[in-house]
Amino acid sequence: MDGLLVKIFSTHVAGAASKANEILGLIRRSSVHLDIPLMTYLYTSMVWSHLEFENLIWQPLFKKDRDLLEKVQHRATTLVLTLSKLSYEERLCQTDLPSLSYHDCEAISLGLVSTYMAFTGLTAQSCFHWR
């Protein structure tokens, strides 16, 4: 049963990466010149949601699935000709896009906080009254 769930999750992640790559292809074919603000706007409005959903909600279990999602963002940052020669980390800095692995840490932190709150009986409202 566990193997089936892992296969379903991996298939779902691959499908989302494929859809995101299709949208990136559409962006590349429909624009002659992409500058940084335009690429960032198109990427965050059309592609990011597919990757963020997979990364935050499904939290891919395997490195190959996380790498597949990260590869889409890697490809998106190479669409800007002035950035294509830079390293991936430098392109992320220039476009102000966080790495998807940053969201892994964010999701883990959120999960830990939620677990702590469940065990201690805290609610979101009681957290605002801490002093």
How many β-strand stretches?
Answer: 0
Query: What is the count of distinct domains?
Result: 1
Instruction: Give the overall shape.
Output: globular
Q: Report the portion of residues in β strands.
A: under 5%
Quaternary state of the chains: single chain
Largest sheet: none
SSE topology string: HHHHHH
Between the first and last Cα atoms, what is the distance in angstroms? 47 Å
Percent helix range: over 70%
**Low-confidence parts, pLDDT < 50 over ≥5 residues?**
103-108, 125-131
Structural class by secondary-structure content:
mainly alpha
Count helical runs: 6
CA radius of gyration is 18 Å
Give the rounded overall mean pLDDT: 77
Summarize the structure in words.
- The protein has 131 residues and is an all-alpha fold.
- It has one domain (2-127).
- Helices cover 76% and strands 0% of the residues.
- The protein has six helices and no strands.
- It has helices spanning 2-30, 36-58, 63-77, 88-95, 100-120, 124-127.
- α1 (2-30) packs antiparallel against α2 (36-58).
- The N and C termini lie far apart (47 Å).
- Mean pLDDT is 77; it is low at 103-108 and 125-131.
Pick out its properties.
mainly alpha; 6 helices; disordered C terminus
List the helices and strands and how they pair.
Layout: H1 2-30, H2 36-58, H3 63-77, H4 88-95, H5 100-120, H6 124-127
Helix pairs in contact: 1-2, 1-3, 2-3, 2-5
